[in-house]
Amino acid sequence: MTAASIDALPSPATFRAPGAGLSGTVAVPGDKSISHRALMFSALAVGRSRVEGLLEGEDVLSTAAALRAMGAKIERDEAGVWRIDGVGVGGLLQPETALDMGNSGTSTRLLMGLLASHDLTATFIGDASLSKRPMGRVTEPLSLMGAEFTTAPGGRLPLTMRGAVPAVPIEYRLPVASAQVKSAVLLAGLNTPGITRVIEPEATRDHSERMLAGFGAELSVERDADGARVISIRGEAELRPQHIVVPGDPSSAAFPIVAALIVPGSDITITGVGMNETRTGLIKLLQAMGARIELLNARDAGGEPVADIRVRASTLNAVENDPPEVPSMVDEFPIAFIAAALAKGRSVFRGLEELRVKESDRIAVMAAGLRQIGAIVEETPDGLIIEGTGGEPLEGGGPVATHLDHRIAMSFAVAGLVSYHGVTIDDMRPVATSFPGFVGLLEALQQK
Ligand code: S3P
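A: This is the predicted complex of the input protein with shikimate-3-phosphate.
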């Protein structure tokens, strides 16, 4: 069976302990954050860009469909390379129908920013999960720039935006540590006269800054007296087309990494994973727990650091996370909780309020699922306290409810590999948003 056909298996699905350790060398799909940005910036460049290794997950395909609906030409050739003919900064056209963002918060928030300084009106719609997520964090700064919004109650989707031309440049201090909000303001700044500035007290992923500079935007990053990052972009930019090679997504690699750590006897290698230090918090946390993780063959790919990761089964000890490090592993807490559930001792996770507004409330949903499969967990307002088994398998059970959240589904699939009775997951379909081939990859690691 191919990876795609395995992923198409009907839900619910049960994941069980393999008879032996995981082994082999695998690659994970392209980075989701970088893939969205590669399409968006290419669509605004003058001329043809090429993107290799693009994540072909539903979230990124939502971005591609929206950009096409506004005039960009986006095609995939037989070799899997994507070709994007951009329309130039400010050149996107009025879409004829609502832009369907599916499950993707990144598509929604970054495109809202991009369109906020365009002369058009756009309506954004999404699935039940996305329609619950807060958009006020983006509509607030974009309103200051002159865009106008009508939203569903609570500032949520469906939402209609009227862009401002010319938009007004602002200096905006981020009230939440969010790369999506930072990027939305910077993208609005691309077609705004003058300098738009974002002040970021806690560093978040910097893919927008790196890639915009690569496309030729005039962008600078400085530190202010308090150590906050100050990012300035000069508007009315002209972007030059690029050839981008997307690294493997560290947030997807997180699942096989933890699987290999907790399944006894495992020794695996994951090749070509992005190692941008704004994304490597999980690896540091796992190493602090005693994980045997080696970074090999460190290199640079298209302006981003990349390495191969060798992971061997390890005896893990409990850990307490460092709240300032949360942005560097913000998507990895669900799988970190699984590692903690198998570690020796009591792990304490704090400062995770943002997890409550991800694709699901990841604190509540993980606490419920972990209890269902036999873990001892206490939920706090901003985190979880987990009493680990010390390596003893979890009881198992389910079906665990994933609430349209891909990372919940994949985290519990990994938990099933170290359980007495297997873990059943109610719905595996959300996995296709970020990690097509996930089930096939887990199976490949189990083949001797
Ligand atoms: C992302 C930023 C993060 C992350 C999301 C992708 C991005 O969201 O959770 O999966 O590509 O900028 P926040 O900005 O809401 O923290």
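The domain at 32-242 is CATH 3.65.10.10 (UDP-n-acetylglucosamine1-carboxyvinyl-transferase; Chain). The longest helix spans residues 32-44.
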